[in-house]
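Everyone, study these two lines:
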Amino acid sequence: MAGRDLRALFGSNDHQLGADEAFTNREGQWRVLVSALDGHLQHISAPGFDAADLEAPRRNLLVFHGVGGIGKSTLSRRLEAALTDAERRPAQWGEPAWRGPRIVPVRLDLARSANTDFERVVVTIRLAVAAAVGRPMPAFDIALRRYWDHQHPGEPLEEYLRGDGLAARFGAALPEQMKAALGEVAQGLALPGMLGSTVGQLTGALVGALREHRRSVRALAGCARLADLLEADTDLEALSYYPHLLAWELARLPARKQIAPVVLLDTFEAVGDRTHRDMERLLQHVVWLMPNVFFVVTGRDRLQWADPALHGQLDWTGPAAWPGLADRALPAPRAAAADPGSRRQVLIGDFSDEDRHDYLTHRLATDGQPLIDPSLRRVIAERSHGLPLYLDLAAMRFLEIRRTGLTPQPADFDVEFPALIARTLTDLTPDERHVLRSVSLLDAFDIPLATAGAGISRDAPVLRLLERPFIRHAPTGLWPYHLHDLIRSTLRAAEDTTDDRWSPRDWRNAAERAHIAVGQQWAEHTGPGRRLLIACLRQGLSLAAEFRLDLRWLTEAAWQYVSDSVWEPVTPALRDTGDEAHLQTPADALVELLNTLGRRQHEHRRSTANRLATVIDAGLLPEELRQMALYYLAKAHRDLGRSTASRTGMQQVADGGGRLAPAARRGLAHLARLSGDFPTALTAAETLGWAGRQNRVLGDIYWPQGDITRAADNYEHARDDAEQHGIAGERATAQAHRALALAFADPTTADSEIVLARHLLTDLTLHATTLTVHIAGLIRDAGRSTDIDERAQVLRTEIDTAGLPSVLSLLELAVCFHHAVRGDEELLTTAIHRLRRLTNDGDHGYLADIAHFMGDRPITPAARPVRWLESQETIRQRWRTLVTERRGT
């Protein structure tokens, strides 16, 4: 059961040294797994089980969690080995009496250093099934091939599998199975010779056959959602639903081919945090949609899926959905005796005293005998307090002392762990110790950054330090090196008693050097550099906030962050005290400002406005950054329907003449438009230029006039301008508005424009723009679809959650258009009343007038007058014509 520890093995000239990756019993966790997996096998073998049931509670999940360094990853690896080969199972674990299909384990390390993305998760599970079953899974394989060809043009799946090492791990069966699946379906559809290169044609033909219930595809007809998934966009969201197809295929395997996959997801804490759950949501899709697959999660935190408060962040939440996750976690011995149906979260505690001695006994050996003598093992075991990571570091310390020719003595370990770190420091040269302390200030680093941060002129001390076992290497990282977390935190927090210890002034000087070095890497970078910008902001803000440094380059970096309109999280949120007490420095205020701007895509605009007001009131930001906060506060006020407050803020920013003055003038033009004063809005818009997004503002002014062609042209120019300037967020926003305008006049053209808008939104977090695209889809389908009201209700909920009432008015106009096209006077009246109530404050009142024009109805006498660019009768006729032309299509 022990793997070879090459790091220790190559740390000594003793050829008799046995260096094993020691693994203690963990029998309690094994008993929990056996009980839970046995219940799962009985459940999926029962006559009433349906793998396609999307509503039944899920019990196909077991969670092991605990603090870092407690041995979760080792447990995950050993569980995989024990499930793979009975001979690798410890004798004391016993022989499980499982009944049912053959168990097929597959382990996935989700750690960032493992470079495991969601695509790799899905592909790996399919590879494990391919190796175990040896036959195609047509429904899943066709969907996956379609996805791959769209998302990875020019990169065959076979090449990806070879390059990523997956083919070597699972064999090369999958590509052949996929080809067989494509060929089988092509033959059934009378499309001989159909290959993967034309998979788009094949899936189109297959969808048609499924919709028409043709006999030629009866083998796939039982998969009720296959056609819908093949018609969906080929993005990560769609990919996360494909496991449903694989579950369906597994369920229909013949009895002799039946398997029970067990997927072990290790380092689950790496998929996100308690605020950003995008990856977690995708993985939850996999678990929920594959009820005939058992999942074992290991990570630092308990899963919160049974918490109803997460509804909206995750798709299946609450104790009814996850009965076993709702209870408090029990330590392993108690959990083993509990009902497996009610205890699915197991806390992994510290090693027992027996396990500590067992670990040290087997960790290092010569000729089969423990290398560490009993008295020394007792000292190390006692001082470890049961933390496996301490034991491992102690073993490495033992070898380091032994390598000097000395015999390690109990006194060498008769210290608390911080003292062991101090002993480790004494083994380093003065230059190496200096570099080590310097890099402890950084989350990650490369050689130039470490050298500059240490304030030295040579790389040699850095290169020597990188050879130490406590420096971790992640080749795919932007900065590939990082200090072991425990050592880093100890260096930063523990009392340093070494002769060359640093004073508080030394630490601040090092922070200054590191801050400058990080800024220089960003400033000297050529190319897009978005990834580097975010990484530099995170490290720079952390240093500036902790050591009260001047903002310096952070000001320009903050402007770059904002100008791209992408809104990734740049740093963990500051402590939320509800007042300004946590804002003590300009760096604190800038952290809160950028956090708020990034989070506004995920929270109610009211929260955004309150946070920005707090930042402004703290008075810590320099004037140009205060203008940034003021501008986005004005935008939040506009989204909340607080036009007066928004107008005041926009005017202040415009009068200030800073970088956001053009944007503020655009905001004033928008406010004039919202109030129905189109001539004033047009006059303001014509002076904006690119900086003020003139073409997009003109499009916003022209489409309410019913002048769809001119508006679409303006939006197209706006999109092209944004592309020329490399502003991805603005490009997506302009395209979304173009799609919406064209949806009123030309559904066929709008369809392709909506597809492009969705594509441009990939990897962007722009909530309002995404909602605009959804509304464009409603307008495109108006009069022709029977589910408009249901889709509109879903969007109302999303809009209300986001706090975007201005978008809600646009949604209600889309509903009015639908009812006007269908000629349903009663429903149109109801929809107009809803829209009129939303616009009673005067903003967007012109949308209610447009709704009247659509239905060829007189304007309500009490309505606030609108100043159109042309006569009201001209505007009325245009909108009425759009309705009548839609009826004729």
